[in-house]
Records
---
Amino acid sequence: MLNFTTLPPLSLYIHYPWCAQKCPYCDFNSHAVPVSADAEQRDKDYINALINDLEHELPAIWGRTVQTIFIGGGTPSLIQPEALQQLLSQIRARVKLSPMAEITMEANPGTVDQSKFTEFYDAGINRLSMGIQSFDDQLLKKIGRIHDSQQARLAIEQAKMSGFDNINLDLMYALPGQTLKSALDDVQQAIDFDTSHLSHYQLTLEPNTLFASQPPELPDDDLSYEMQRVCQQLLADTGFKHYEVSAYAKPGKQCRHNLNYWQFGDYLGIGAGAHGKISDAAQQTITRRWKEKHPQQYLETHAGLEKFPQNSTKVTNSFMIGGEQQLSRHDIGFEFMLNSSLLTDGFDSRLFFAQTGLPIIQIEKGLKKAVALGLIEWHQHHIRPTERGLQYLNELQELFL
């Protein structure tokens, strides 16, 4: 039995599953758009399914305020601006959205122009996350990106001219054939654009990707670690706070949506393959839900839902084709630490009770082991991963399994 006294902050994640083409390193739920696809009809059908999805989630969050929205993918910047405007308008009509809500959209430089950025901004998007990955054309080709460095630079400038002042740039390091100088050059160029946030993460060969079956030659572990170290130092020297394992921000510009994940907040997930996590004060439970993964099956599921009354048991059963799981006390402790261990500053131990309804004793055994191994520091109410803990993050997280 949990013991919630308050409920965690609430976010909304929206998944847009299509891309211009699938990158060889990507293991996200993304699908290349057929050349013959009717973009306008595709977006119309998908927006209708998203709203239907949201409506069936609403009873779980009545009265709660949505603090952040994140539209991820896939490549959400492929969406038609009119469809995006309709989506956000329909969301505002159905949920209590904070007037200060952070609303983020992921964007690929090869899919946007000045007018599209302006329409996204006018629709209510107030934060962009742009998948740059590198400013080196040869490296971009090696990792299968559809844009070049000139398009990347132009997209950043156009976004700023459209009014966006809260922009994240995604960069990868340890790319095939990358040198230490090239990795530093990428970070320096990103810094020179004077954006507020930078994600900097290592290319890894994920299962079920093209790179996993046809692996490119990557920098060795020593060089990869050196790239990480010197780039982190450069970011620190230029005013970026390293607040999460792969995230860096200017003061006050941390991604609020992602912070809610790492602090074990609640979130609805709508769209093909989307995941959600919702706490229920009346039932004293935490439940995870996930949606049908393939876009076509997701669309067919929601087309079928419209045939039944909204309060029908048949609707609920059909709607949960993806699945749901009520978390056990052990699951809750593990998932809290899985997320919070990513935060470089750690967390106040009292947050554990506030977000889980459980006493800190639930994870005390793992915490003591982590302290003994030098992976965590625990001083009174403050718990944070050490530099060694961040370096051996998998080992740290496994202590709570």
---
Amino acid sequence: MEHFVWNIDPTLLHLGPLQLRWYGLLFVGSFFLGLMILQWIYKREGKNPDELDNFLIYVLVGTVIGARLMHCFAYEPEFYLSHPLEIFKVWKGGLASHGGLIGVVTALYFFAKRYNQSFWWLLSRVTMPGALTAAFVRFGNLFNSEILGLPSDKPWAIIFERVDMVPRHPVQLYEAFSYLFLLLILVTVYRKVSSTFATKILPGIFFTYMFAVRFLLEYTKTRQADYTTDLPFTTGQMLSVPFIILGIVWIIWAFITKDKDVQKG
């Protein structure tokens, strides 16, 4: 069986000693597209989109710091504790989505406090651009030939020639398209329900769906952490479980309190 061979150069453009990589372009580009989604939401709900002028700075800084620290100390703690200066070399790669999410939530808290906005309202709306960014990051992983899947004989398996000649699950695409579908779900729910209920339900949907997908797709991935445990789960799965539980509890809480909001109205 012939499989598709992937051998794209991860560097899109060379500018002397500088490089423009596909990953960086997709990563930053997703934030600008996400900002456009937020601007649409602000206009739709009668808020001033000019309040978002510094939003990207907060979220980008929070994402990179959170994702980098989580990667260093959850996936390769022995190396980075022995070489602490390597933590700052983000350009070498190594960002963990779980930490990125924590970093974003932290950044949103400070942004909301700084600009006197509702943290919960903002958190719920950011789930939509957040799903988009998660998808684009996985597309970036595809261009880097990283986050590899396990060997597979499926007809859609891909050979990552820059790594080896073994057909593998294109797990980057599995995740990317799953997150784009999550974006569709979030936008649909947002447009169908009241603003108050959207604030309550969207984060729960986001956490439950995203990390359930992450948990399940770990079964098709190669090991990412530089250590092993006696538990039958990967590091990515163990980090996902708290978010799944949080999401389920959040959804239940949203529906339990929905009728109270109706009665108050």
---
Amino acid sequence: MSKLGNLGARLHRGEISYDFIGHRKLWYSISILITITAIVGLAVRGLNMGIDFQGGAVFTTEKTSVSVSQAEEYAKNASGHDAVVQKLGNGTLRIQIAGMDTQQSDEIKSELAKDFKVDSESIAADLVGPSWGDQIANKAWQGLAIFMVLVVIYLAIAFEWRMAIAALVALIHDITITVGIYALVGFEVTPGTVIGLLTILGYSLYDTVVVFDSLKEQTKDLTKQTRFTYSEIANRSINGTLVRSINTTVVALLPVAGLLFIGGGFLGAGTLNDISLSLFVGLAAGAYSSIFIATPLVADLKEREPQIKALRKRVLAKRAQAASDEDHPVARRLDDDSEDAAPAVVGPRDQGAPRSRRRPSGKRR
């Protein structure tokens, strides 16, 4: 742990660094590949929309010893459709069947009561209309659009428009990957999923703004010096906040991983998967995009400015001159000696008049 802390301190002070900006084409390629995979998965498999979005019936049984797989078979035989069955913490079962109306719901409820060998009144049935799910989806899209617009406006005012564009690209990158993972895994999309998606946007933006704030501080009066280019300052900003980003991401991922893998996977609490998967994938994607996408994209946009281009030329020219001086040390030393040498003395030296030695009495010897 002490070595890790020492490594973080050296990264923050700029004593060591990794060239994130120099390898930005590699990061872009990886992100494009992942994004294309997510889009293909979304187009081919589609999202497994929950009953809240497509409508249907929800049946809740009393505490029972019937397994989830057996309940799924009962529900499929009774309705003729695939059902989503979740075992709740108190031992009851929650059975969701999409596309059911009131009459079908009553018939299925009676069939399930016979299969479970219980009274039909002990099974609670709730109908969810598709219009309610449409309203949720529309409100979620509206909230997302408003959020994006406000983010761009704020970042353009607080920082600059290039950083606003880079942050927006990073947010779209995170949303696309998260939604694509949902399509590939086949997890059900519920209102909890929407909440998780909106939550990760704030986290991703926070991690990006941390790097941008460091970059803004280090690039003040940048064109007045000739030691570093803008890309090199951007790389120092990433390295300076890298340990902080890793620490906050790991701390945030640990409890979410507990909900997803232990609660949803090991303990079988399927309701936790709705929000935990979106949080887990989104947090990881947000940390990645703030380091490998947002800041390198800002550097690419800034390097197109005439002032930054001129700065880069001056920096490279100065380094080329320094390298040339190192290759010819004798000539450089002669030049230094000729410049630093004291001016020669021209003409006779004034040594002063000779002193005559006299006796105390004032007579000469």
